[in-house]
Structure formats: structure tokens, C-alpha cells
Amino acid sequence: PTPPDAALVLEALARGYMLAERWADARKGCEMWRALEPNHPWPWHWEGLIAERMIQPETAAAAHARALELDPNDPAVRLAVARVALDRRGAADARPHLEWVLARAPDDAEALLGLA
After folding, report:
1. What pTM, to 2 d.p., does this model score?
2. For 50, which DSSP code?
3. Residue 35 neighbours by CB distance under 10 Å
């Protein structure tokens, strides 16, 4: 049986590994967390952040896209989707996400820069 706080422990481990820039360990933590909570958006989003750091744009795009499906109202996820799209030369794909963020936070520096 899985301990009731296992997901919280895996979240903490993944976060700690990300802060320490231990990307492979962070990824493993996210994978294990997703196995327990496949519909939680954060391990998907964090997997995308890890993939961005590891210069894996396809993996980053897929992970952020799944996080967006699970929580379309998370500005951090929207910005990540837009950032990866811009990195892949997809300004048209990034625009609606950047505009969504700016409609809610008009002074968001990342969204303003992305639209520029």
C-alpha cells in the first residue's frame, strides 16, 4: 500500500532536486509523482521545466501541453507553453497564451517580452 503522504514527499523531492539542478533525479521524482497522481498538473509542468533545462524541446512541449489540459487557468503553465513555442519559432502558437496571461496580469514581464 502507498503511504498517504507519498505524493507530498515526491513533490518535495522533485522540488529539491530541481533547486539543486539534479535534473535526472527531479525527473524521476516527477515520474513517480505522476504515477500516484496522473491528473495533477504540477508534475507535468515541472517535467516540462526540467526538459527545458535539458534542452529537450519536444518533451518540454508535450509535458507543458498536458499540464495545460489539466489546469488551463495556471498562468505559469501558460507562460511555459508560450516560452517553448517561442523557442521553437512558433510565435503564432505562443500569442494566445501570452495574451491570456496579460489579460489577467497586464504587467507580467515575461508575457510582455514574449509578445514583443
Report:
1. 0.91
2. H
3. 13
